[in-house]
Amino acid sequence: MNDTLANTEKKTAYILTLPAVILVFSIILFPIFANIWISFKEVELKDIRIPEPRAKKIVKSISDEPTKIKILYKLRNSSLIQEIRDVSFQDNFPKTFEIENLDPRCSYKKQKLKCEFGNWPAKYRENFQVVFKTNDGSKIDKKNLKSIKPKLEGKSDNILLNTNFTLKNFKKVLFENEFVDLLLTTFYYTFFGTVGSIIFGILTAQMVNQKFYGRTFMRSVLLFPYVAPVVALAYTWELLLDPNSGTLNSLLLNYQIIETPINLLGQKYIEISILGFDFKLRLALTTVIMFEIWRYFPLAFLFILARLQAIPKELYEAADVDGASPFQKFFNITLPQITAVISILFMIRFIWNFNKFEDVFLLTGGASGTRTLPINVYQQGFAISDIGMGSAVSIVIVVLLLMFMFFYFKLLGKRVDEN
Amino acid sequence: MRIKNTILFSLISTFFLIFLISIWKILATLQGLSINSFNIEIIFIFGLLISLAHLGIGDRIKPIYKSIIFSSIFVFCDGYLIQKLPIWYNLGVFLILYFFTNKISKYTFIGLKEEHSTQVILFDFLTLFGILFFSFVILFPFYMMLVTSFKTQIALLVNPLDFSINFGQDIKDLFKSYFVIFKSYKFGKYIVISTIVSVGTVIITLLFAIPAAYAVARLNFFGKTFLSTSILIIYMFPAIVLVIPLYTIFSQLGLRNSIEGLLIVYTATTLPVAIYMLQGYFKSIPKELEEAAILDKLSWFGIITKIIIPLSIPAISSVALYVFMIAWNEFLFSLMFLDNPNSFTLSRAIQYLSGDAETPRQYLMAGSVVVTLPVLFIFVYFEKYLVSGLTAGSVKG
Q1: DSSP A256-311
Q2: Whose CA is closest to B144, among A236, A255, A231?
Q3: I need a labelling partner for B153 at 20 to 30 A (CA). Which of A21, B97, B192, B381 fits?
Q4: What is the largest CA-CA distance in chain B?
Q5: Would the CB atoms of A302 and B387 count as touching at under 8 Å?
Q6: How far apart, in whole angstroms, are the C-alpha atoms of residue A126 and residue A122?
Q7: What's the first-to-final CA gap in chain B, in angstroms?
Q8: How open is the CA angle A75-A59-A135, to the nearest 5 degrees?
Q9: Cβ A236–B380 below 8 Å, yes or no?
Q10: Is pLDDT above 60 for A52?
Q11: Do B375 and A228 touch (CB under 8 A)?
């Protein structure tokens, strides 16, 4: 009895979870394996369209002979590079139609015109014409004739399915693609964006954790950048920072803080000298990181605030009795209590920033030294239309991420052991 | 010790005042006033004098009179003698000064003797400064988005700093950018598509996620732990890695440029979070209720529809809102999958609009307002539900 109950429970569980599991596996896990497959192939964007045999049907009446009609099919192979084999053709006609001239490749039976066109090489074109006559002399309805679409079928190789593999893509990614620069840019973007958003998150959480008028309102305002659509925010920032008539530059010029506008999103380097040390700052990258911090610190804020509100009040009361100053309280009570949240946040944000595409794409498109790995996936795959290369870059991303996660958990595990 | 504290207090409060007035000046400049300098030196001297005078006078005058007197003197000297500016500007300065003097009124000369008083003051002012600074930094872009959408190209070229809105003009002129994007750029259609996609994603996600979450929360089956851990791992997986294979597969299946294609991808990417959030909530529902239902011979379908769903309306609505927001804001897949202007979502449409360098910026901003408003509205209105959802699952991105 118990056994059958457990069995039905199992069955129910599989029925309930199966739809979700199938969907997630086919859209998320399968593509990851497909990525590995594609990354070892030489595939371009134009190769992935399956070649199709196509026919455009043109109906022409023949002058002086209202019972006859000429039908022209403009046949072609949609692909410019691939052959289609064994093309078959079929079209239907009204009952009263009789064929006048039958092409040797075709047959006409039961109002069906069937043809076998054989193999079509790439770019193949042919004008194929048939003439019909109505056997009862009735008039021909051209519109009706046109609305019947011919069916074409053919076989072709799918470049994605053959087994020609190459290591060329990975060789290119790792050795020709300014890989070190790409990696460094991605690292700067990820690391400083993550650290910055966590610092701002701590500051704002500490702030909102105190009592003041309009605190709940403040909490929602702080989450605005996080919940608003990226597209809107990125274009607003772009307008604000625009060198020609952007608000920021106009303001700075107006107050005579600068003399010439600064192109914050379009200039790769800016020379800065502090205390006699000259160094080059990557300006556009810094701006993009600022945007990233601005947009994502709310997540850190929310997590840290939730943690802060769970810290027992007695700790602070005891500190007050001991005569601790506000800063002592912050460094000795608050900070140790939130380290666990911070380490989780660091990992989550690091992974997500590492893969962040939209923000940089919308702000700079990857120009002026802001090309990160995800941007490179897009550029290789869609701008240069080299799908194989794009896949190879995304495989590199996955490998790097897995390495990061591995080391991070190892480090974290060690620290937990020590405590 | 007290002298040191006095000096520190005056300096900190003065810097705070300078910050307040500078923000007001920036906002005033953006209304078209010609203010070419922050006059930091003058405000610094005034601020210092006010703080010191405040400490010196102490309780001898009622705080409210003290505030009014200080504010009036400041406004008279700064606004009337130094820069001749309109009344509303000076009224703003007056209110800022009033706020400022009120804020400093709780610090007294005697109080400065106390232990840690500098740190307390610093902490207090940093908090205040933080509140204002973050409000400004966050709201400023949203404010600019909104006001730019009401300006015209010519007005912005004449004076790029004048964002004042002329409410006197005809409604048609005021909302011109909005009329244009709806008429010439088909934004009405894009709103419909975005809504269908987002609402559709919510419905399908819930249909798939509720049974799955129930199974994970309640039933015992082989592979359960594997499933629940893989949910989290899949959630961490980067969308950019999926783009190329999905693009190729969808191209070959003819799913690109279709709402169905987007629905499939959005549902798959939001499912893990939805299941994760829901199963957490389902676990908190007392088991006894279901046991009673099993005795009544209710099938699992009956249990889910008659017991679980009615009891977890808050969690389900939080998941629904939150999936809606992800789907509404999504950009990457809509960029990759849609290239026919007839099937654009709002985000993709705005990006397409910006691709044309000729597009006036106010149209772009009007479009941005259109795509942002529903989300912010939902967020503010249902904040309670959403914040719990955000902390539980955290919006992906």
Answers
A1: TS-SS---TTT-SEEEEEETTEEEEEEHHHHHHHHHHHHHHHHHHHHHHHHHHHHS
A2: A236
A3: B192
A4: 86
A5: yes
A6: 12
A7: 50
A8: 115
A9: no
A10: yes
A11: yes
Q: How many CB atoms lie within 10 A of CB A89?
A: 21
* Beta strand segments in B256-379, E: none
CA of B145 to nearest chain A CA: how many angstroms apart? 6
Q: Which of A35, A225, A351 sits opposite B244 (nearest CB)?
A: A35
Cα–chain center distance at A63 = 57
> Is residue B311 exposed (0-12), middle (13-18) or buried (19+ Cβ within 10 Å)?
middle
**Of A40, A226, A236, A329, which to mutate for an interface test with B (greatest number of B Cβ within 10 Å)?**
A236
Q: Which three-class secondary structure state does DSSP give residue B343?
A: helix
**Residue B73: what pLDDT?**
84
CB neighbours (10 Å) of residue A267? 16
Domains of chain B, earliest start first: 2-148 (no CATH), 179-393 (1.10.3720.10)
Global ipTM? 0.90
Are B51 and B9 a contacting pair, CB within 8 Å?
yes
Which token pair is B56? Answer: 């010196």
State which residue of chain A sits closest to B22, comparing Cα positions: A255
Cβ-based contacts of B383 with chain A (< 8 Å): 220
Query: Contact A231/B351, CB-based, under 8 Å?
Result: yes
Please check whether residue A236 touches B, CB under 8 A.
Answer: yes
The minimal CB distance from B219 to the residues A12, A203, A239 is found for A12
**Backbone dihedral angles phi then psi of residue B335, each to the nearest 5 degrees:** -70, -40
From B156, B227, B331, residue closest to A17, measured CB to CB: B227
* In the predicted structure, residue B126 carries a pLDDT above the cut 60: yes
- Tell me B162's DSSP state: B
Task: Give me the residue spans of the domains in chain A.
Answer: 51-155, 177-385
Helix (H, G, I), strand (E, B) or coil at A83: coil
Contacts 24+ apart (CB under 8 A), B111-118: B112/B2, B112/B5, B112/B6, B112/B9, B112/B55, B113/B1, B113/B2, B113/B5, B115/A323, B115/A325, B116/A323, B116/A325, B116/A326, B117/B5, B118/B4, B118/B5, B118/B8, B118/B9
Question: In the CATH scheme, what is the homologous superfamily, with its name and number, of domain A51-155?
Answer: Mu homology domain, subdomain B (2.60.40.1170)
Most A CBs within 10 Å: which of B34, B248, B390, as the mutation test of the A interface?
A: B248
Using one digit for the tens of pLDDT, what is the confidence trace for B210-257?
Answer: 999 988 888 888 888 888 778 777 777 788 888 888 988 888 888 888
Are B120 and A326 an interchain contact pair (Cβ–Cβ within 8 Å)? yes
pLDDT of residue B331: 92
> Chain A, 88-127: which have a CB under 8 Å from a chain B CB?
none
Run of H or E including A110: none
Flag whether residue B216 sits within 8 Å of chain A, measured between CB atoms.
Answer: yes
A chain contacts of residue B371, beta-carbon cutoff 8 Å: 229, 231-232
Cβ distance of B119 and A348 shorter than 8 Å? no
Instruction: With beta carbons less than 8 A apart as the criterion, state whether A297 and A197 touch.
Output: yes
One of 3.40.50.720, 3.30.530.20, 1.10.3720.10, 1.10.287.1080 is the CATH number of A177-385, namely: 1.10.3720.10
| pLDDT(B306) > 90 | no
